[in-house]
TrEMBL record:
It is found in: Secreted. Keywords: Disulfide bond, Repeat, Secreted, Signal. It comes from Scophthalmus maximus (Turbot). Residues 250-301 are annotated as: Disordered. This is Cysteine-rich secretory protein LCCL domain containing 2. InterPro entries: Allrgn_V5/Tpx1_CS, CAP_dom, CAP_sf, CRISP-LCCL_domain, CRISP-related, LCCL, LCCL_sf. The gene is crispld2.
Length: 508
């Protein structure tokens, strides 16, 4: 990565960037933005009187600075030229702010940390001397527009050319990247900071992290067209200040990262009794469609547990049987095909999927059979039944070593009514793999083209050290959400008709 410095007088300031080739585009002068920036600078000048730099050795992003950063970002994004048809309204993200804080406190004049840069975008700025508000650097990033030329669709065949006639334009393109909808920044004053071989004292360091990341090679930062004419369906047609906007849009928190928000409005309350105030840490449950069966997760069951007690209204899949079920009282009807009144674990021993030490077993529910025959196998005697009943079959769970790029589509594509995947053992270091080799698309439910192991880290099933993962293939969905979770930014797709889905789960 080649880096360059840009001097800002009378204050020495730097912007860190990657050099690219481009031409230029000039934004028409904005009186409103100039007045806004002048107000920031005047306020900063007043604050600088009587405040020595040593008194600011450590300070967080003030609420006023945070609001200025968001307001300036959205005003600049709304005024791009040529106009953007899919520009999304930007909100503050506490998780991105925390990650920016951790990096700013390192006082390293470089992008980082490296394991997070695969998932987020990042702009940096630093200055020393007279105090400048964070908005000073945000405006400087945007001012790179003078060296940038927007690539129109007819120039992208299929990849868009990079056109930057100045030292760099990547700060500007990240700032106006249409699908980047969240930002979190941190300001830290470093007592001594090495900036390209020179030691700066009391350097004020600004780090802004963006999600989803922008600056994808070969892509334009946004789509040209009438404002809000190509917004993602999740915005419901909302538009504010030339940007795609939800009426209930607000800064994303950890709780919002954990659970997808419902996409349908909740029914109105029919009573005047005030609702109890919810706890801040309790995430709102997503609204599920009644027609979609909720998949079960593998769980430890008892030796006497019958299949009909576990499969009513849900998909039968993988269960964990305890040890010493051979001598228990649970009854088994049938051979090879078993009646749903049968004990799952004792039928698994009878079939040979597990032995008396227990273990994992896969179950597939079948149609109704006219009768079931008896047999003695593996130390268990089954019973006969000459009345029709719903049947199920057993399968031994296989184990498979996977790499960081293995997908569900490769090893066990979805089949109706269900598919059984082998138990996957994931290696270490999948978290740091590039997204273009090991993508993660979705949140808790992922597309079958996602990396199994990296998605498992995103879902919190395993850590970056790897481990065993169980996968349940599901039918395709119309949309997948993308969130930053466990250090990985997943991607989102609103319409993926050709892709299936899969969900990670663990034993309970």
């Amino acid at each position: 990565m080649t880096c360059t410095a840009v001097a800002w007088l009378p204050v020495l300031s730097l912007l860190l960037f990657c050099i690219g080739d481009s031409a230029s585009l000039f934004l028409p002068d904005s009186k409103e933005l100039r007045q806004l920036l002048s107000r920031y600078e005047e306020q900063a000048d007043r604050n600088s009187i009587g405040n020595a730099a040593g008194n600011r050795s450590r300070r967080a992003v003030r609420w006023s600075d945070r609001e200025e950063i968001i307001q300036l970002h959205n005003n600049l994004r709304a005024g791009v030229y040529p106009t953007a048809s899919n520009m999304e309204y930007m909100v503050w993200d506490d998780e991105l702010e925390r990650s920016a804080t951790h990096w700013a406190e390192e006082c390293q004049w470089d992008h980082g940390p490296h394991d997070l840069l695969m998932s987020i975008g990042q702009n940096l700025g630093v200055h020393m001397g007279r105090y400048r508000p964070p908005a000073f650097h945000v405006q400087a990033w945007y001012d790179e527009v003078k060296d940038y030329t927007y690539p129109y669709p007819h120039e992208c065949n299929p990849w868009c050319p990079e056109r930057c006639s100045g030292p760099m334009c990547t700060h500007y393109t990240q700032l106006v990247w249409a699908t980047t909808s969240r930002v979190g920044c941190a300001v830290h004053t470093c007592p001594r900071m090495n900036v390209w071989g020179q030691t700066w004292e009391n350097a004020v360091y600004l780090v802004c992290n963006y999600s989803p990341k922008g600056n994808w090679i070969g892509e334009a930062p946004y789509q040209h067209g009438r404002p809000c004419s190509q917004c993602p369906p999740s915005y419901g047609g909302g538009c504010r200040n030339n940007q795609c906007y939800k009426d209930s849009q607000r800064s994303e928190t950890e709780d919002m990262n954990e659970v997808e928000k419902p996409q349908v409005p909740l029914p109105p309350r029919t009573t005047t009794k005030p609702a109890p105030k919810p706890k801040p840490s309790a995430p709102r449950k997503p609204v599920s469609k009644p027609s979609t069966p909720k998949p079960t997760t593998p769980r430890t069951i008892k030796c006497e547990t019958r299949l009909r007690d576990k499969c009513r209204g849900a998909t039968c899949n993988r269960y964990h049987c305890p040890a010493n079920c051979m001598n228990k009282k649970g009854k088994v009807w049938g051979t090879l095909f078993y009646d749903v009144k049968s004990s799952i674990c004792r039928a698994a021993i009878h079939f040979g999927a597990i032995d008396n030490s227990g273990g994992l077993v896969d179950v597939t529910r079948k149609d109704k059979l006219p009768f079931f025959v008896r047999a003695t196998k593996n130390g268990i005697e089954s019973l006969s039944k000459y009345n029709p009943g719903i049947a199920f079959v057993m399968t031994k769970v296989e184990e498979m070593n996977a790499d960081c790029y293995t997908t569900v589509a490769e090893i066990c594509p979805f089949k109706n009514p269900d598919s059984h995947c082998p138990r996957i053992f994931c290696p270490t270091d999948c978290k740091t793999q590039p997204s273009y080799w090991s993508p993660v698309i979705g949140n808790n439910i992922y597309t079958d083209s996602s990396s199994i192991c990296k998605a498992a880290i995103h879902a919190g099933v395993i850590s970056a050290d790897g481990g065993f993962v169980d996968v349940l293939p599901l039918d395709k969905r119309k949309s997948y959400v993308g969130v930053l979770k466990n250090g990985i930014q997943s991607e989102r797709y609103c319409t993926v008709p050709e892709k299936g889905a899969f969900i990670h789960y663990t034993l309970t």
